[in-house]
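Fold tokens
===========
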Amino acid sequence: MRVLMLSFEYPPHISGGLGNHVYYLSTNLVSLGHQVTVVTSRQNGTAEEEIRQGVKVLRVAYHPEGDMPQQVANFNRAASTLDPGHFDVIHAHDWLVKDAALIYAARYPLVVTIHATEYGRNHGLKTPMHHFIHRQEWELAQKARELITCSRYMQQEVFQLFQKDSTVIPNGVKIFPPQEVTPFSHPCVFFIGRLVYEKGVQTVIKALPQVLKYYPDCRFLIGGRGYYEGQLRQQARELGVEGNVFFLGFLAEYWRRVYTSQSLVTVVPSLYEPFGIVALEAMAEGTPVIVANTGGLAEIVNHNVDGLKFPPGNSSALADQLLRNLHDWEVGGILRETLAKNALVKLKREYDWEQIARQTAEIYRKSAESRHEHE
């Protein structure tokens, strides 16, 4: 099939999990014999047009001045004026590409993946901006011939918010060959992600005093950037743990893998998490994970089998799981080895990108057939 994907993010421009999702989905669709064109935003130093692993990538300059709605409008205006060719289906990823998607949808059937919702991220619609984004999501969902969500949790959330059914197709993960690693000299807990309130990094910092009573040389490594960094630094100072907390900034994929594999555990403490790709990436590196028992994370991890869980926002319960992991490491790591082994088996069985691409292509086929039935 000939597929046009619209995504605000695509490598090398990545600020969250969406860009990697579109990259691996599109390249695996090409491997299956489909033709994929991705329209995305152009960042500094990126080519306007290129072929990346068989995927045709078209990048549009969008003059990122003004507030978010203005930036999004600029991008969509530029994206919708392209003439990228003829397609069997359009696949839009999240609300940022809504306007361009609806213009192309006048000619081709529209498939939409909703990766997250504004209501879910903010636990409600509390500001004019929240309501604006929710309206964009609503309109995009209503115009979609087929909706895709990444977890049963998101399927339920999307139905409640938009009164539309969706098909659950999970995110996948790339399993790299094992790399030789030398663990850090101190036991390290690792987080990678956007530094925003809903990612829950504050829960880990609050748990540290309890952990440091028993393991005073433990380090908490934080990879990523975001508006919440200042508050997190202040929290660490107020709790007297700033000497054990290290902010690493943005990490390219190579360094994400290094820090993940060299740390004792990756923690994913989200308060809201539609899926939780970071947990899969850590599991793929053979690193045990401790995740908040919420959203898509609750579906990924089976407690005491392939990972550990704690109630979201509960710093005392998180400290207990961190101490359990540290003690196991100290006495030989039997639990850690078991969790890592079981996690790898699960990844290969349930989160393989080729399988996910095949499931997505089936949604495309249904959309195209539905269009012909209505013509």
